[in-house]
């Protein structure tokens, strides 16, 4: 309702009653979902949809067809329910529901609420596609949502009418999540998609919008609160924000958690976030106790139980409770095995083995190592983390065999055991360092030093120093120095972090290729840049980031983690970004070709985004000797379809891949597109 007393909205009582009923159904379904009654929430939305379908809509009187809204909320329920119960193909189901919601929204009259929800449909579809392993397509859909969201500041945030509370709350949430997502994207992804959509985003604006959404207490307040807590207690430390800034975020998180305890008591989502908050403020014992409380309430929800076990394990590691951490990792594996899931089982089994080994529980350690190795026999496309864990498990097994029998006997026993394992090894695998591997996971993977009190962090550093002193090769010393430097960075001891990182970087000429692929050298340069920035030397930080980019090995173990952290730091220091996308113009009745030179044994990945209309595309491999091979052909690829991407290799012989963009079918229109070829070290040239 307007603040102007002369502009009072007059609503038909029947229309107002319908709106109240529909809004109540949405609010109740959200409350049921947040308090772990997922199926009841789904049933309520289904019955509400049936009721709406019977109506004779009076759009001219302010009536609305809310079926699209119900279907969208149902899609979110499906996402949470599917992930919680570990149902197969749950993400496909979510995408189908989101697309159905978008279709049903078009049955409603044209108003600000419909615009907001259509933007959210694209936003959620993009996030789901990223979860499905389609990052280019997902980012494209997220940023395409800007076509609907870009006018919300004037259309939705200032909306006047009986629907104002719902519309404004949803608009603030949509804009906040969109801007927050964009603020964390790698610059190349932002550049490519922004070129086609014209969006703009910012983290400060995002967090302000989310805060407004929560403070106003509208229908989307709980979701905005969850995002704010998650960013403040987890994402903030992942990005490497300084503790003074994180402390302020923790105060806000505590305020939201206190509100949630009143409004949504015993809600799993907020309880899980509170455990993360307690760890972030260095109350690890409290965090573990909170997770223990949650565990009993999620026994029938495998995914939630899995997450609780993994989170408990990481906190127990930071408490140096090795055996208990091993038990928690083992329990997480059992949950997945119980529902027929395999992803992450090799990695968590190996984690359990490392914990038991450190605790001196040799029998349990051997059992979990065999559990990990058993997955070598599975025919599955493993994630990079699981592939590394399987290789590491074989390295651990080889080390055990060498300690127990003569080398020739060991080789005979091993000949058939590891035939399915990828033989590419890192320094951590070729020379098995189990204790160092455990410390690396605590510090670099789980960021555990952030959770430790000062005396515990000091003890952890002593243990790492002791293990580093035992290393006889440069690869091992670099790993140890990297862990120590990152521990100092997390504790914000900048002089010590700077020295340790510098010592690690100085080992670069002595490192093997396998040693560089551990990613520890990359992490040392990253810590170096953070330390310079924190001490007020932005130019030195830029120089360290430039050296990080110049290493040339992009497929290291910490590739994604380093990329996100470096992106955040580059924005802080104002460093220039390498432009990975090239703009290509294809005239009417012609074609343009990108030629990628490929040395023997190398691979290539590509993706392109078309600005408008359509284009034909083909990727062809031409070896130095032999017949050419067509890798991919796409006819009439539409701009609306988003990115087109592909990969090829590694190839047994040297040659070249030709990426051919054909516009020969178009008589009048030229076409423009952006194309990226990776890795950046490949030689690429354009031919008309």
Indicate the CATH topology of the largest domain: Serine Threonine Protein Phosphatase 5, Tetratricopeptide repeat
Question: What sort of overall outline do the alpha carbons produce when their principal axes are compared?
Answer: globular
Overall mean pLDDT score? 84
Overall structural domain count: 4
Estimate percent helicity. 55-70%
CATH architecture assignment of the largest domain: Alpha Horseshoe
Q: Biggest β-sheet, characterized?
A: 5 strands, antiparallel
Helix/sheet category = alpha+beta
Structure summary, number of beta strands: 9
Taking the alpha carbons of the first and last residues, their distance comes to 61 Å
> Which strand order do you get reading across the main beta sheet?
5-4-7-2-9
* Assembly type: single chain
* Helical run tally: 30
| pLDDT < 50 stretches | 1-8, 82-88, 413-425
Pfam families: Iml2-TPR_39
InterPro entries: GOLD_dom_sf (IPR036598), IML2/TPR_39 (IPR019412), TPR-like_helical_dom_sf (IPR011990)
Kindly list the characteristics that best describe this protein.
688 residues; alpha+beta; Serine Threonine Protein Phosphatase 5, Tetratricopeptide repeat; 4 domains; 30 helices; 9 strands; GOLD_dom_sf
């Amino acid at each position: 309702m307007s603040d102007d007393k002369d502009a009072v909205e007059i609503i038909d009582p029947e229309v107002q009653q319908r709106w109240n009923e529909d809004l109540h159904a949405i609010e109740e379904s959200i409350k049921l979902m947040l308090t772990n009654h997922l199926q009841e929430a789904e049933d309520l939305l289904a019955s509400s949809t049936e009721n709406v379908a019977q109506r004779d809509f009076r759009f001219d009187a302010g009536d609305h067809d809310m079926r699209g809204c119900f279907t969208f909320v149902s899609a979110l329920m499906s996402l949470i329910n599917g992930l919680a119960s570990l149902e197969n193909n749950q993400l496909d189901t979510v995408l189908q529901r989101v697309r159905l919601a978008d279709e049903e929204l078009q049955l409603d009259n044209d108003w600000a609420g419909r615009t907001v929800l259509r933007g959210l449909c694209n936003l959620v579809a993009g996030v789901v596609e990223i979860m499905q392993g389609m990052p280019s397509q997902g980012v494209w859909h997220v940023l395409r949502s800007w076509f609907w969201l870009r006018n919300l500041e004037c259309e939705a945030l200032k909306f006047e009418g009986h629907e104002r509370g719902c519309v404004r709350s949803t608009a603030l949430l949509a804009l906040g999540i969109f801007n927050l997502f964009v603020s964390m994207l790698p610059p190349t992804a932002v550049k490519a998609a922004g070129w086609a959509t014209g969006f703009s985003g910012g983290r400060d604006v995002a967090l302000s919008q989310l805060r407004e959404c929560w403070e106003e207490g509208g229908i989307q307040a709980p979701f905005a609160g969850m995002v704010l807590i998650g960013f403040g207690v987890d994402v903030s430390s992942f990005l490497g924000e300084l503790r003074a800034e994180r402390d302020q975020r923790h105060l806000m998180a505590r305020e939201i958690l206190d509100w949630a305890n009143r409004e949504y008591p015993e809600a799993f989502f907020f309880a899980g976030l509170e455990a993360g908050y307690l760890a972030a403020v260095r109350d690890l014992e409290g965090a573990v106790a909170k997770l223990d409380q949650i565990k009993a309430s999620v026994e029938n929800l495998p995914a939630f139980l899995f997450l609780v076990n993994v989170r408990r394990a990481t906190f127990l590691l930071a408490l140096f409770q090795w055996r208990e951490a091993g038990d928690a990792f083992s329990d997480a594996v059992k949950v997945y095995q119980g529902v027929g899931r395999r992803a992450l089982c090799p990695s968590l089994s190996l984690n359990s083995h490392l914990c038991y080994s450190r605790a001196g529980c040799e029998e349990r350690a051997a059992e979990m190592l065999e559990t990990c190795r058993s997955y070598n026999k599975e025919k599955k496309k493993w994630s990079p983390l699981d592939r590394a864990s399987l290789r590491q498990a074989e390295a651990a097994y080889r080390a055990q065999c060498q300690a127990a029998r003569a080398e020739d006997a060991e080789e005979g026993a091993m000949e058939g055991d590891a035939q399915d394992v990828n033989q590419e090894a890192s320094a951590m695998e070729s020379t098995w360092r189990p204790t160092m591997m455990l410390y690396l996971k605590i510090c670099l993977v789980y960021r555990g030093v952030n959770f430790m009190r000062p005396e515990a962090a000091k003890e952890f550093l002593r243990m790492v120093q002791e293990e580093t002193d035992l290393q006889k090769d440069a690869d091992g010393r670099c790993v140890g120095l990297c862990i120590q430097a990152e521990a100092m960075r997390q504790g914000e001891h900048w002089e010590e972090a700077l020295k340790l990182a510098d010592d690690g970087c100085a080992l670069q000429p002595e490192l093997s290729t396998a040693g560089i692929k551990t990613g520890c050298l990359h992490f040392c340069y990253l810590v170096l840049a953070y330390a310079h920035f924190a001490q007020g030397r932005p130019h030195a930080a830029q120089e360290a980031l430039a050296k990080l980019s110049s290493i040339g090995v992009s497929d290291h173990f910490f590739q994604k983690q380093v990329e996100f952290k470096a992106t955040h730091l580059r924005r802080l220091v104002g460093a220039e970004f390498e432009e990975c996308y090239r703009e290509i113009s294809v005239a009417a009745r012609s074609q343009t070709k990108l030629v990628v030179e490929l040395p023997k044994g190398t691979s290539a990945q590509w993706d392109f985004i078309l600005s408008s209309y359509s284009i034909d595309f083909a990727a062809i491999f031409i070896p130095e000797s032999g017949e050419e091979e067509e890798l991919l052909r796409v006819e009439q690829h539409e701009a609306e379809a988003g990115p087109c991407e592909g990969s090829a290799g590694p190839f047994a012989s040297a040659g070249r891949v030709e990426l051919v963009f054909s516009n020969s079918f178009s008589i009048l229109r030229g076409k423009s597109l952006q194309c990226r070829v990776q890795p950046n070290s490949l030689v690429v040239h354009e031919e008309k």
